Structure to design on (306 residues):
């Protein structure tokens, strides 16, 4: 009897400023192996760190076969050229860096790049199993990925979903983008950490725990943060009217209390508008706090064909 054929695994890498999270998935989408490692910044460091994670995943597989490597990475990504630029937190802040070519040569497989939020959006689509959704990432910044009518929407300049840079306060502080009073200065992981600093642990977890315990100051900060996220949800819903809004990113580790706070903010914000209330925005919310959607989405990236 001949041995059963085993399909090669697909690898997904979620490359962040501090760590790389890698997974290998089989043809059925099941996670076969998982690995995390610290990110070494700089051109050589990022390539070497990523290649090390791929090697560890390959060693963990029964046959060591990998069909493709998908990479989700912050910055401006040219998916066809396989380059990334303006990934400042990775030390890749110069010209377009040919990460796909260099990592592919080091890892021995075809590499395809995607913006990290878009990769996570693909993962959210896989986990939620709906063909019309917005993925709202509450990380260091605030950004959204759009998966509409069964396809990822990147935008003409790759800027679709940059809802964090909607100015909401003309008298507010200057954002890193150069505008004043942007939404991510209120509704992002960095904004939350600045409003509720902690000596140890995750600021979001500390804030929500304190608010649940009845700390009035924590309740105020939590509700202001939730109002900002709800404003982003409203803007996205009015722009593209998705079936589902999936909340992810570092703040999403809070889980259900985060969803409840955003839902309550949406209800408050729509009370005076029968039109907005009829859209039932709160009922569309989901929070992904456990599934590694960014790495899953990276593994599902389809290699670009010219």
């Amino acid at each position: 009897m001949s041995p059963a054929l085993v399909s090669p695994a697909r690898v997904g890498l979620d490359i962040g400023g501090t760590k790389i999270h890698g997974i290998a998935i089989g043809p059925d989408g099941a996670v076969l192996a998982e690995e995390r490692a610290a990110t070494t910044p700089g051109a050589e460091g990022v390539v070497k760190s990523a290649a090390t994670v791929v090697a560890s995943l390959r060693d963990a597989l029964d046959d060591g076969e990998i069909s493709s490597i998908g990479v989700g990475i912050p910055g401006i990504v040219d998916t066809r050229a396989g380059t990334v630029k303006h990934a400042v937190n990775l030390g890749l802040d110069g010209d377009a860096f040919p990460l796909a070519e260099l990592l592919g040569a080091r890892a021995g497989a075809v590499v395809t790049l995607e913006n990290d939020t878009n990769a996570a959006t693909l993962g959210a689509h896989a986990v939620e199993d709906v063909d019309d959704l917005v993925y709202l990432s509450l990380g260091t910044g605030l950004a959204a990925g759009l998966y509409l009518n069964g396809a990822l929407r990147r935008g003409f300049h790759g800027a679709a979903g940059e809802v964090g840079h909607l100015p909401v306060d003309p008298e507010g502080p200057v954002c890193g983008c150069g505008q004043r009073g942007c939404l991510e200065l209120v509704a992002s992981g960095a904004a939350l950490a600045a409003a509720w600093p902690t000596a140890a642990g995750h600021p979001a977890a500390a804030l929500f725990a304190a608010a649940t315990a009845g700390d009035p100051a924590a309740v105020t900060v939590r509700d202001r943060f939730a109002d900002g996220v709800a404003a982003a949800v409203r803007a996205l819903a009015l722009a593209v009217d998705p079936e589902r809004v999936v909340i992810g990113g570092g703040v999403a580790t809070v889980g259900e209390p985060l969803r409840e706070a955003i839902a309550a903010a949406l209800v408050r914000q729509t009370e005076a508008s029968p039109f907005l209330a009829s859209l039932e925005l709160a009922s569309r919310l989901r929070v992904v706090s456990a599934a590694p959607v960014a790495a899953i989405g990276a593994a599902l990236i389809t290699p670009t064909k010219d």
The domain at 9-109 is CATH 3.30.420.40 (Nucleotidyltransferase; domain 5). The chain has two domains: 9-109, 129-287. Confidence is low (pLDDT under 50) at residues 1-5.
